[in-house]
Design a protein that fits this description.
2 domains; single chain; Rossmann fold; seven-stranded parallel β-sheet; 13 strands; alpha/beta; six-stranded parallel β-sheet
């Protein structure tokens, strides 16, 4: 038996939605096996460097690109796919990993395919309610598929369903132990007011920004009780700040929040998207929400993610619209009654916690460590 520390490979990237749950799994691996070697086979997108370099994990950039719509681009895709397969094969040969975890998306494909061919224990993370094309393609080749929702199993072929484990979405420990006072002090908000947190994902959602700014006068009328913590996305802070200041809304503005545990600890209500990570984080932190699912997914992926929270009474779903005025009216109808009813917010928080799966990362790690022995 080798005395070398085990290596675990994480395949995927390109979005925070793929990388955040992976880092939660890594955190739990390190808690059980501090000497473990972690390596990501990822993309060349800046978000990968932002997440992984800050955490100090090794990464290998793959030439793979998404499958293009135009047939003219298919030859380039095929060449990149072959090069990525060769790269993944070489990494697996050199590192001899104990297990491989695919994170979803096109960047998971080469390493998952190569690991499965070599009988290396291989699994997929699928936190979205509806699996994407890559995971539907790869699911037949892996030993396990970890999903957030029980109902996701129905989206896979019958032959795959026995390997599906509905464990929840892995969430970092720091999300569950935030410091409310720290973030409020940092952005100069008061501790004696309730806080409405507005966020549209790591890149910011312009339709959410516009909709909430359309409610500036409504928020100003509640400034004795409510303040706003708004994560705008890169390059959008100045314009958002100006609207709040002109309307007299007490607000703290961030382009990006690196301490999401603190944000959830400060938030009495969240307005945001319904990405898989977001809905899991809302549940484990017991945070009421008004959710505007991303409207342009063909399979209405984020609507499916939000549905369990809404059904439990933990969230209100507002359909996003391209027209800012329509969006503001829809958000006004969903949001303002909550700002004026603290009893309902308390009930929503309890409902959110009833859906929490804080041990999701532990369950994934238990499988990886057991299979990797």
């Amino acid at each position: 038996m080798s005395d070398l520390p085990p290596t675990f490979i994480f395949a995927g990237g390109g979005t925070g939605g793929h990388l955040a749950p992976a880092l939660a799994v890594v955190e739990e691996i390190k808690a059980d096996c501090p000497q473990a070697v972690i390596l990501f086979l990822c993309t060349d997108k800046p978000v990968d460097a932002k997440f992984l370099d800050a955490a100090g994990h090794g990464r290998v950039i793959q030439p793979i690109r998404p499958l293009p719509h135009s047939p003219l681009a298919w030859p380039d895709f095929y060449l990149r796919w072959r090069r990525s397969l060769a790269l993944a094969g070489a990494v697996l040969r050199d590192t001899r990993p104990a297990a491989v975890l695919g994170l979803g998306g096109y960047a998971a494909g080469p390493a998952v395919r190569q690991a499965a061919r070599r009988a290396i224990p291989t699994a997929l993370l699928n936190p979205d309610g509806v699996p994407g094309k890559a995971n539907r393609y790869l699911a037949r080749r892996v030993d396990a598929v970890f999903t957030q929702f029980e109902g996701t199993a129905a989206c896979f072929p019958a032959a795959v369903r026995p390997r599906i484990r509905a464990v929840g979405c892995p969430v970092r420990r720091s999300l569950m132990s935030g410091d409310r006072g720290r973030i409020l002090a940092a952005i100069r908000l008061r501790s004696d007011r309730q806080t409405l947190a507005v966020m549209g994902g790591s890149l910011g959602a312009e339709t959410i920004n516009r909709a909430i700014l359309g409610l500036a006068a409504d928020l100003a009328g509640r400034a004795d009780r409510w303040q706003v913590l708004h994560v705008t996305g890169a390059g959008k802070a100045a314009a958002v700040r100006e609207v709040y200041q002109s309307a007299g809304v007490p607000a703290g503005i961030l382009e990006f929040c690196s301490t999401m545990g603190d944000l959830y600890a400060a938030a009495d209500l969240v307005v945001g998207r319904a990405g898989a990570n977001s809905v899991a984080e809302l549940a484990v932190t017991g945070t009421p929400s008004v959710l505007l699912p991303y409207p342009f997914h063909r399979d209405r992926q984020q609507h499916h993610n939000a549905a369990p929270l809404a059904a439990a009474g933990a969230a209100v779903i507002v359909d996003d619209a391209a027209d800012p005025a329509i969006n503001a009216d829809r958000l006004r109808a969903g949001l303002l009654p909550l700002l004026d009813c603290p009893q309902r917010l308390t009930a929503m928080a309890v409902a959110a916690r009833s859906l929490a799966r804080p041990a999701a990362a532990r369950e994934v790690v238990h499988w990886m460590l057991e299979k990797g022995k």
